[in-house]
Predict the structure.
Amino acid sequence: MNENCPTFRTSLLEENVGPGHNPTDNPTMGELIAARFSRRGFLKGSLAVSAIATTVSPLALMLADDARAAEKSAFIFEEVEAGIDQHDHVAAGYDANVLLRWGDGLFPDSPEFDPLNQTPESQARQFGYNNDYVGYIPIGGSSEHGILVINHEYTNEHLMFPGIVKIVKDDKGKDKLEIVPADRKRVDIEMAAHGGTVVEIIKVDGKWQVVKDGKFNRRITANTEMQLSGPVAGNERTKTNADLSGKKVFGMINNCSGGVTPWGTYVSGEENIQGYFLGKLPEDSKEAANYKRLGIPDTSYDWGNFHDRFDLSKDQNEANRFGWVVEIDVNDPNSIPRKRTALGRFKHEGADSIVARDGRVVFYLGDDSRFEYVYKFVTAGKFNPDDRAANLDLMDDGTLYVARFDIDGAVNWLPIVFGEGPLTEANGFHSQADVLIETRRAGDLLGATKMDRPEDIGPNGVNGKVYVMLTNNSKRKTEEVDAANPRAKNAFGHIVEITEEDGNFAAVRGKWEILLKCGDPSVAEVGASFSTDTTKNGWFGMPDNCAVDADGRLWVSSDGNSPKETGRTDGLWAIDTEGPARATSKLFYRVPIGAEMCGPLMLPDMETMMVAVQHPGDGGEDWEGFGRQSYYEDLSTRWPDFKDNMPVRPSVVAITKKGGGKIAV
Ligand code: FEO
Ligand code: CA
Ligand code: CA
């Protein structure tokens, strides 16, 4: 979801981007950017390009880049033309086949998808809505047979359900969608369409298919039984009317991005949890400040009208049981997913991990709201490749760190540990559990750097770098600009590259620089910093998800490009990070009108790229090809089926080279 996305769910979107909930005046370290400019010789440093680009026209930069950009990109393919229409488009010479659509059966007994007669029971046996993260766990080491894991982030009722939308006029006389309040059945379908999917897939004659009777197949929903584990499990603040143990939770919600651990489990980040809660806390509630910091309640959904646990007036603590990273053991479809509380509670985007040199495992974590923080978690124990069972609780014990990006190009990882520094009784923390439940406040007190909406963070095991997607932040004022977030009203986002000290992902410090500032490089005021090899099709805005392939190449997908914002749909962009072609971007795949691009996932053999097309058809009023609000009865696209009796369907797409072979080489 994105602040520029023309969806009707505006309240949820507003909170997603954080309506100024970070109340601190933590230094935006680049307040001293001017001081930095005055320092002799700093232009020789690795930060020179990013620093210059805050004040110098990108066109001038592009001229300076001419020599280096003449070199070849690491990606070899014929770029797609950027644009907007009802279809998806992939680079010439590639096939993009839909593998899984919303409503597709996942089990031998799954009912056929019937959008006019959907039920909660059917939905719980079918592929869910709004696929975001896509991960792959090989079976027997294969890149042609494995388990696909997919997050179902949220639901768009106006695209899913017939007969619930009216077009009305807003204050300015503009058309707007009005949706009838949900009944119990609709709420229960929505809950069943959230969560995740675990499904066996196999490539037969070069084409991927779902194994419907796969023994690993599983749907996880907003009602699946889970356990809180780690420091917060059993805490007073997680005990509810229905669960006096403070450990037994039902469901995961708004799971955005995620990861696959080195031991082959599926991890999934709960992001915008605020939208699912309604009602008022009692006046004397101790959770008021905690919930305010996360924007709870937001009342985007009607669930609390039918399920008391989502009504704050009836249950004060349920919301403390959401906002975690969830780990799912895919080997056993009856395993109980664990909410790994040691990784903190905030609006979790993803949880990509990598094994550090000494065997500890490092998870990189973004908190996706404006002015929120970048985190990493380092396990206390070491990964043992020969003992899967011994790895299964690694995520319960370790150290969570929050990032401070310093003016001199250093990044410092500050430990979030009860009793250390300001994280004490004096500041209202009584235990590590308290610190983790209010992770954002801990980050405030530690002086972490307020970032431009941290989304996916991708560690790269080939070159030892880490890429941080910062999607945008239109609320950053000129006086709040800093070195790591160098643009005021940052409409198009940027990518920060971290090099951990001595190439050790578990290090507590490193260096950072800006890889890329996004937006149209031909408009000087935008201040974008793509290389001059980047064509008019190759630039983009709003980086969101990312993937690093087996060759260490970076792929970035976007959320928020639109006719109005950038004159193009979202897509998958190949970005050079090394050598003279650094910061060259090329468009490999683009989505239909109204969609955002999620995934992406390159399989280990580099012969398949999986991508997730989320909320296609959500919008179209700013596109001349449609020009009005899009909803179930009048859709801006009917991708991927293009049948009159089928609504638009979020889908996972498998991209392969015609005739086989590695992608983009
Ligand atoms: Fe769900 Fe941060 O995007
Ligand atoms: Ca998104
Ligand atoms: Ca995202």
The radius of gyration is 23 Å. The chain has a mean pLDDT of 91.
